[in-house]
Amino acid sequence: MTAVNDAPTDLSTGIELNTDGGNDAYLISDTGLSQSLNATTVEIRFAATDTPLETVLMSFNNPAGDELSIQLDDPSNNLEIDFGAGTVAYASAIDYRAALVDGTVHTLSVTWDNTAGNWSVYIDGAHIESGTGLSVGTALDTTNGQFVFGQEQDGLDSGYDSSQCFSGTIYDVRIWNDVRSAGEIAQHYQQQLDLTPAEAAAVGLVANWQMDGFDGSSQVVDIVSGNNLSIAHASGTGFTAGTVNAQLSIDENSTNGSYVGFVTAQDPDAGETFSFSLTDSAGGRFAVNTSTGEITVANSSLLDYESSATHNITVRVTDSGGLTYDEVLTIQVNNLEDVPVNQVPGAQSTNEDTTLTFNAANGNLISIADDAGEPLVVTVAVNNGTVTLSGTTGLTFTAGDGTGDATMTFSGTVEDINAALDGLQYDPTADYSGSDTFTITSYDQTLYSLDLDANLQGPLHLRRQPCNDAARARAGRHLGSMRP
Known about the structure:
Blueprint: E1 10-12, E2 15-17, E3 25-29, E4 39-48, E5 54-62, E6 65-72, E7 79-83, E8 88-91, H1 96-100, E9 105-113, E10 119-123, E11 126-131, E12 146-149, E13 164-165, E14 168-176, H2 182-188, H3 197-203, E15 205-210, E16 219-220, E17 229-233, E18 244-245, E19 248-251, E20 259-262, E21 264-266, E22 274-280, E23 286-288, E24 294-297, E25 310-319, E26 324-334, E27 341-343, E28 348-351, E29 356-358, E30 367-369, E31 376-382, E32 385-388, E33 396-399, E34 407-412, H4 414-421, E35 424-428, E36 436-442, E37 445-452, H5 469-475, E38 479-483
Parallel strand pairs: 5-13, 19-26
Antiparallel strand pairs: 1-21, 2-14, 2-18, 3-12, 3-17, 4-9, 4-14, 5-6, 5-12, 6-7, 7-8, 9-10, 10-11, 14-15, 16-17, 20-24, 22-25, 23-24, 25-26, 27-30, 28-38, 29-35, 31-34, 31-36, 32-35, 33-34, 36-37, 37-38
């Protein structure tokens, strides 16, 4: 019989945990399994790049204590397998952190049985190492407790440690009530098993969380038994707020090359290899790594939430035989509060001892744009002169009063501030010639700076000293330029 190459059948995304710099987010199950386990195979498909001291993939606790956990140890970089209360095996044949925490998608499979305590570890369907003597004769009490993904629980949904967490994306978790063969693990490590509860029970699959997304109540559904996962956040020393994101998403204005997410391919053929491409890149906004399926920003200037909150891309996966599968995916653009932006004129000039007025009529209006709609704090300052606002309605001052100030600080709405800036006057120090700087800041961020040119243009050179105004009037105009 000749083997026939099957085409890829699906693309899937995952759920991101703590990829925003936080570390407190995790997923927790409603309850335990419907049975204790004398043998098991745990399969977790994930991608991670961050390296907490101990990268925790999963843990299960019941009222009696720890019962099951899988995590990467620090500093040994061994794989710690805790099957049975207080009983641990350390897989050390390779540097597991280097093998698993590299930004690409991997499937980690761990098998165990209690007859002789035999255990084995597989990565992406390939056997890595085996051991024996782990929890011999012990049944794992997985009926009365909760599974947690992304944190290590030392008590029942408690006892969290900020050095033991997970940062990355989880795609699929499967728990079996038997030891899967090496062939079965190799065949299915890059497949989703869309089984009915009856079909799952017949083959020993007791839990399967497919992380393609949340249901309508923000839960991940266990397709086998309905033992769903919910979002939770750990508390305690060292924890900072982290997010759980079930969509491909990116902040607006993110830089080119910024990470958006991964896609993984499903194919019936064991050990199949894939390449990825975009047949629709949303107008050049996104790119995909041909070998890993990582989606990144290609043109950050086109990511503006106010213009469009979502973009669709079409991902094509091609197997080694040239067969393809296409799927349209939606990328969410996250809205960020835009920083205030000045609308300012170009270079300005003024005569010595002459007021310079900034307004719309003169074509040199200074104004502030801000989409947050919140009050701003603004500071206006000059080094060699004073400034006067056209009005102070709606403004509250903490420095100066808006009239003849070298420095003033005030707060108000964007509308009231812009009304005051329309008609703002700059008065240089009497008989002063030389450089000056006009600065406007908001939220403690310098938005714009104007420098007065030290070289005055005109038939008469003015030194840094009082001049004879009558002589100046007879000689002509002496201008100073204000630079952006």
